[in-house]
Amino acid sequence: MNNFIGTYECKIDDKGRLKVPASLVKQMENFADQPFVVKRSVFQSCLEVYPMSGWEKLMHKINGLNRFVKKNADFIRMFTAGVKTVEVDSAGRLQISKDLVQYSGLKKDVVVTSAGELFEIWDKETYEQVISTNDVDFAALAEEVMGSINPEDVS
């Protein structure tokens, strides 16, 4: 499994074209010319970008939900709302649709940051607000989320 690494400050133009840093383009090449899937984040006002293989793995789980259960059908509809496929163009840009730019509040300055097998696209100001939590809060969160994981179980 390939994971993305890094946080990058980028620019997006008025047409929604995001200039992808060369080092991230190089990482994207690890996915053998697959398209990527851009979607709205569930918990934040940012965008998530999945390689197609990761998206298909996630959708396999989602497709296992019983669509005759209303909350499942509602979740699937909301989860996949606005989903688009994108590819890096010859100028090293991703075209972000207007509805996704609007949802995520992207302005001229954006941050692209790794999140394991996907990466996120944030408006720079929003990103800085979200990560500006104090050290004590982050330490408590880290302990709550990771504290019960046995390092020998992670492989």
Folded structure, characterized:
This protein is α+β, with helices and mostly antiparallel strands and 155 residues long. Helix content is 36%, strand content 24%. It has 6 helices and 8 strands; from the N terminus they run ββαββααββαββαα. A 6-stranded antiparallel β-sheet has the order 1-7-8-4-3-5. It has a two-stranded antiparallel sheet with strand order 2-6. The chain is globular and about 45 Å long. The model has no long low-confidence stretch (mean pLDDT 91).
Produce a short descriptive summary.
The chain is built from six helices and eight strands.
Q: What's the main sheet like? A: 6 strands, antiparallel
Query: Care to count the β-strands?
Result: 8
- Give start-end ranges of low-pLDDT stretches: none
What level of helicity do the residues show?
A: 25-40%
Averaging pLDDT over every residue, what do you get?
91
Choose one word for the global shape: globular
Distance N to C terminus: 11 Å
Number of helical regions: 6
The secondary structure category is: alpha+beta
Widest beta sheet: strand line-up:
1-7-8-4-3-5
What is the succession of H and E elements? EEHEEHHEEHEEHH
Rg over alpha carbons: 17 Å
Strand content: 15-25%
